Amino acid sequence: MLDKKLNFLIKKEKERQKKEINLIASENFVSREILEILGSPLVNKYSEGYPGRRYYPGNQYYDEIEKLAQHYALKVFNLSPNKWHVNVQPYSGSSANFAAYSALTTPKDKILGMKLSSGGHLTHGHPVSLVSRFFKFIQYGTDKNGLLDFNEIQSLAQKFRPKIIVSGATAYSREIKFKKFGEIAKSVGAYHLVDISHIAGLVSAKLHQSPFPYADVVTTTTHKTLRGPRSAVIFCKKEFANLIDKAVFPGLQGGPHNNVTAAKAQAFYEALKPSFKKYQKQIVKNAKVLADSLKSLGFNLITGGTDNHLILIDIKSSFGHKNSHINGLIAEKLLEKNGITANRNSVPGDTSPFNPSGIRIGVPAVTTQGMKENDMKKIAKRIYTILSDVKN
Ligand SMILES: Cc1ncc(COP(=O)(O)O)c(C=O)c1O
Questions:
Q1: Which of the listed CATH numbers 3.40.50.1100, 3.40.190.10, 3.10.450.350, 3.40.640.10 matches domain 32-271?
Q2: Torsions phi, psi for 367 (to 5 deg)
Q3: What distance in angstroms lies between residue 322's CA and the mean position of ligand 1's atoms?
Q4: Fewer CB atoms inside 10 A, N or C side of the chain?
């Protein structure tokens, strides 16, 4: 019997998810099939090791499931199994990045990654992340318009000679030029590691420049635009396969979460369907219409707009204000009170991640629910009504 308190909380959360307008750029709604796989008896088994090389008996079906997940994962990104390998066991994006760094470096090697305040992820070198205890990070930012500054990246790479250059972001609304990053990495003899956690779905649908021709290793979460379970995978050139596999297991993790591996296989299977490409196209269309509508209502957008699934609003300088008292935190709370969830976010020049000036808005979840351009216009107006109503 389900615990009463737990039952109540799950019921309430289901209601919350139904009622809210979810604009959190890193969230999505998985298919019924993925939900079923996650709750299946596959959760009962231990499978430490890799297909054909397990430390437990009884793994004949798990070997096939893992190989299927690998097969579909490579296919989604059009990668030849002769040139690329994929490890489908990482528990999450953070552990995937940690494993990938440790595979390619020795402790205290230098890594060049993007600052959190400019749109990078914690695991790209923020001091509070454990990655910073094991590796020495140098960080690049964005210019005053919030755009990547390749002159700065090139000069930091030349000055510090990192072993890895990390590209990819968690809050960046423009296309990332992976080719340029790859050239810089090559020029200083660094590996190029790309984290496409946010944009993986767009990359798979060819709506964003692919990192694969310019990268040595590519990590991605599977639960954002990819619309799979909460997890991650690591792609690498064949020559790094052993290093990456060893870093994931036994280096960092124990047994893989088999129900999640199967759910990842299903997510990649779904991503191979034409309807998934259509979904990704709609994401980009929706984000553009939402950005244009917000702009015309007086919101100040970082970089002036979007090329992908997300938008960054500088709330403090919106509606002609230089420094309004409404910051990202207040805006986040006001929106939540009114049924819209979107998270506060740093904008260029911010110093406190807890009290930043911006809000990050993403459309993958509402696009999964079937919303289209007209709905985006309505959402923009609703956000305007909620946030412009507050006296400055
Ligand atoms: C770019 C990027 N990398 C890594 C991660 C970490 O993923 P996880 O939360 O699964 O550890 C995130 C999560 O938001 C992300 O945006």
A1: 3.40.640.10
A2: -70, -35
A3: 32
A4: N
